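Reviewer 2 asked us to include a model.

Predict the structure of this chain.
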Amino acid sequence: MEVINVAQPAQVILVISGGIINDEYLRYLRDGSQGWKFAGEYSASKRQGPSSHSLAQLGRKPILKVESNHSQNGVGIGQQRED
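Predicted model (structure tokens):
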């Protein structure tokens, strides 16, 4: 399990890996009462190898890039998501 902290906007992304089929990315935003509110989920397939992720900044907007490789499925494609 890994925690990715993002300062602006205040949020945390919890990465749960170790499953056989998928890595899970759970996003939580800080709400007005200083608690946390669930804000979304992404599941990255890792059937043919682990997924990877990186955090980038586009202006003031943080972007999480998640990649997983599907080339061993015989179709030669990769899966990427930026959010």
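The longest strand covers residues 36-45. The mean pLDDT is 79. We have added this to the supplementary material.
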